[in-house]
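User: Teach me something about this protein's shape.
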Amino acid sequence: MDQIVRPKRIEPDDLNPNYQWDRHLPAWGSMAVDFELRIDFDRLRRYRISRARQALEKSEAGAVLLFDVNNIRYVTSTKIGEWERDKLSRFALLARGQEPILWDFGSAAVHHKLYSPWLLKEHCKAGLIGLRGTVPPSAGLMKRHAEEIASLLREAGVADMPIGVDIIEPPMMFELQKAGLKVVDGQQIMLEAREIKNVDEIALLNRAAAMVDGVYQQIYEELKPGVKESTIVANANRYLYENGSDDVEAINAISGERCNPHPHNFTDRIVRPGDQAFFDVLQSYMGYRTCYYRTFNVGRATPAQSDAYKLAREWLDRAIELIKPGVSTDKVCSVWPKAQEFGFPDEMSAFGLQFGHGLGLALHERPIISRVVSMEAPMEIKEGMVFALETYCPAKDGYSAARIEEELVVTNTGCRVISLFPAEELPIANAY
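Assistant: First, the predicted structure itself:
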């Protein structure tokens, strides 16, 4: 009979050693080696679960029920195919004083018992609530699991406390309520846990950004008249997957007259001489994501295009100069132009153009920096946060635009940029 080994409880601060900010951040390869301490995944797992427990203890909830795949990965360090991202097919429960319990898709639960020894084997369960309604609630799956969860919370002694839920299908929430549970917002609990990255998370985010450095070198070389936006996207996808990406979430490729207004996508448009073009690479390495824009001109640039780039760079640099622990996000976005100053009727219409957002297992974590929210509800910037700052400036020609984004790690005294493909001046690809 297998002996049950319960993980040692360790506080987050014990797993977050000095960052040694005076040293260059590592961009490790994907191999494990015996001659360097690279990513310590055991430390990463312990850090994440301890952060989740700490955030739970600070909240009103006695447990969190997680359907968001990013939260499930954070708490259980398990992952199945990217097809699961929008299906709510897996869920996990973390109660105060207890080890996490995971309900997974069919045979994945059996797989975890074999290959995920940091989880208790009896806590790896097969489960199904209905695949977003395709199995109707009348089949009873949701009722069965809701009653099971209520029973587990009674055993843990927290059934009288609220249960935090991150995202959920309404019928499942109704069944939890019928089982006598009070449902509260659990996403804020998990976002608080995830906002400070430890040394391993920072190294993974830095490695992910290094992969995008390589993508931009490839784009710089292939961006010439006659190439299609979709071809650039296809080649970038291949590069990323060959270099270890586990999910290319999206690649925006936007050129010529499509630059203004920003459409946030790509097409089969053919690139032409003199086009301004910008790209965004959203992908992950070991779950840790990038959001990293760069703008190029094809062959040559007009004064209007160059001026737009200079302004976008200036707005970005002003914000970067402010980043350090203790600064509030309203101070950062106050240096960006108001929506009307760059051609938009209101801040909601311009949301995401002068913008900052946390990076981690999700594309958007804390902090969010935007005039839409930060002026009235500012957040404090803290050491160990990792986030992206991005700016956008339409050109005076009416159709071109510049878009630049930098990824930053907040240090003890300021910040470190980890998106390193050169962007201080407008790059001209295949100049002539």
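Now, about its shape. The longest strand covers residues 276-285. Residues 199-222 form the longest helix (24 residues). If you'd like, I can walk through any region in more detail.
User: That's plenty for now, thanks!
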